[in-house]
Amino acid sequence: MPEITFEDIEPGTTETFGPVLADREEMIAFARAFDDQPFHLTETAARTTGVGRLIASGWYNSGLQMRLLARHWFGRSSCLAGLGIERQSWLKPVAPGDRLTVRRTIVDTRLSAGRPDAGIVRFDCDLGNQDGQVVMQTRQAVLFGRRGAPMVPLSPPPPCPDTPPSRGGGVEDPEAAPRCFEEIEIGRAVDLGTYDFTEARIVDFARLYDPQSFHLSREGGAAGPFGALAASGWHTAAGWMHLYSARLRRIAEAGRAPRASVSPGYGDLRWRRPVYVGDVIRFASEPVAKRPLASRPGWGLVTSRNTGWNARGETVIEFTGSAFWTMGWNEGAVLTAKT
């Protein structure tokens, strides 16, 4: 029996978990796997960018926060699934050797309209460093089982390792890719390619960043809420970043990349369906808005809608992201914002 169920979670209550070390080698390993922009890889490479120093990927910071939540809260509870992220803001850089602590505050709770055995909990997380600075803020929603209610697992579909079809976004020619804010075309979707969710990839990611039993083994998955081994939602998001950073690398190799393309965060993330062993997910990104930044001369902010879907045509993830882009192909632009 879980120690904590939906009924035990009270709005307004706060807990603190951690600390966890932002280990240099682990940071770089994550970047190589999922976000290989130069300022996440080495000090030398970072000095050639507008960021100027080695910092962790924002998605790595998300993973460390999830590690703390899984070990100290979700793993003791009737947690069934993450529903989504209303917003996550990357406020300050995380450097190698930082020690991070998460402060979690319950915002509200309500019974699930579609699942009488569960309730929905919304909560805020402030991820802080050893200097008392908040480096990341998150508001998200998670589904918890009710006390005494038997868990009703999903019935996983048959394996479908086929390659998902495109939804109309074109494969980008790096030679014609946008190299600055002005060249980004609103409404022009880019097909980022596909990511294979193998059993080894799913388990390896979960061990480090989301060690809940239903992400760690076939046996745990079969006994869990998804009915089979399923990828962490954070792994699905990292799969998108893996392909998006590969896009940036292709643009850079064509001599057209912005000097830096860092993000202040994202929002409206929804995990629509589980991703199971063998699923191949296709991802796309479509700019939906952009604006120059009066507070940061020479830079603009681009907002994009990002999606991933499986071979059955089912959307598994969607979110709205944002990124800083240089204006006017300004080689010397230096991003002095919270990077």
Written account of the structure:
It is a single chain. The protein has 339 residues and is of the alpha+beta class. It starts with 13 loop residues before the first strand and ends in a 13-residue tail after the last strand. It has helices spanning 24-34, 43-47, 58-72, 199-209, 213-216, 218-222, 233-253; strands spanning 14-21, 79-90, 99-111, 118-128, 134-145, 170-171, 190-196, 265-271, 280-292, 299-309, 315-326. The protein is built from 7 helices and 11 strands. α3 (58-72) packs antiparallel against α7 (233-253). The chain is 21% helix and 32% strand. It is globular. A hairpin with a 5-residue loop joins β4 and β5 (134-145). The chain has a single domain (7-146, 170-326), classed as Roll (Thiol Ester Dehydrase, Chain A), CATH 3.10.129.10. The chain has an 11-stranded mixed sheet with strand order 1-3-4-5-2-8-11-10-9-7-6, covered by helices on one side.
